[in-house]
TrEMBL record:
Assembly information from the UniProt record: Forms a complex composed of PxpA, PxpB and PxpC.
Gene that produces this protein: pxpA
Function field: Catalyzes the cleavage of 5-oxoproline to form L-glutamate coupled to the hydrolysis of ATP to ADP and inorganic phosphate.
Biological processes per GO annotation: carbohydrate metabolic process
Keyword Nucleotide-binding recorded: yes
Broad enzyme group: hydrolase
Protein name (Swiss-Prot/TrEMBL): 5-oxoprolinase subunit A
One Pfam family recorded for the sequence: LamB_YcsF
Enzyme Commission number(s) from the entry: 3.5.2.9
Residues of the signal peptide: none
């Protein structure tokens, strides 16, 4: 049976401000990318999300980012490699405290926003992220875009790698994500998102922004928690996958 992991970005709040509906999304997804305080999230939020995820048997992942609360981690930044590696390890370590307190562990690492897109091509920044993961835990899987420099370097360093696809983001012909600054970068039509999810899970393909069918082999499927109607959309995606015979489960 075909199977796929369903992940979402969670814990994206700060203080009294909350962006993601963590409790309801955790009833749908199998992996939670938890903001670690650099693009969103704070100690109370991280602890709460880890407790909720542990209660529901949802895998906890550290979503590491550039230090950019004001820009939600989506602004391009130039961070020296040694500094970036230390900050990646710092974020993983902070989340691990709350995961352990909840009776779980940080199970993987996924970059967020501008850092995620940067390490697709940037060798130096990708190597810094890998160094940070190794510093925190040399056995942690790394989640990323198929063919990215991040996954190539993580694999060479002995870290498990997990390929990821996006049901609600537009793709270029090269298999990368269309920048959010361009129109149509985010797919908002629920029927289209469900259809793309099924194609990614069953055939490993997605239609690019220009209309080309491209290969995107992925073990995990991401839905953004900050998308309007994210909970209902996630439910529809999961129901559609299961109805078509796809097993939704955390990646091995």
């Amino acid at each position: 049976m075909t199977s796929i992991d369903l992940n979402a970005d969670l814990g994206e709040g700060f203080g009294r401000w909350r962006l993601t509906d963590d409790e309801r999304l955790l009833s749908v997804v199998t992996s939670a990318n938890v903001a670690c305080g650099f693009h969103a999230g704070d100690a109370v939020t991280m602890r709460r999300v880890c407790e909720l995820a542990a209660e529901r048997g949802v895998r906890i992942g550290a979503q590491v980012s550039y230090r950019d609360l004001a820009g939600f981690g989506r602004r391009a930044m130039d961070v020296p490699p040694a500094e970036l590696a230390a900050e990646v390890a710092y974020q993983i370590g902070a989340l691990e405290v709350f995961a352990r307190a909840a009776g779980a562990r940080v199970a993987y690492v996924k970059p967020h926003g501008a850092l995620y897109n940067r390490v697709v091509h940037d060798e130096e920044q990708a190597a810094a992220v890998v160094d940070g993961v190794l510093l925190a835990d040399a056995a942690l899987p790394v989640l990323g875009l198929p063919g990215s420099r991040l996954l190539v370097l993580a694999g060479k360093a002995g870290l498990p790698v997990v390929t990821e696809a996006f049901a609600d983001r537009a793709y270029t012909d090269a298999g990368t994500l269309v920048p959010r600054t361009l129109e149509g970068a985010v797919v908002t039509d629920p029927d289209a998102v469900v259809e793309r999810s099924l194609a990614l899970a069953r055939s490993g393909e997605v239609v690019s922004r220009s209309g080309r069918r491209i290969e995107v082999r992925a073990r995990s499927l991401c839905l953004h928690g900050d998308t309007p109607g994210a909970v209902e959309l996630a439910r529809r995606v999961r129901e559609g996958l299961e109805a078509s015979g796809v097993l939704v489960e955390a990646f091995a």
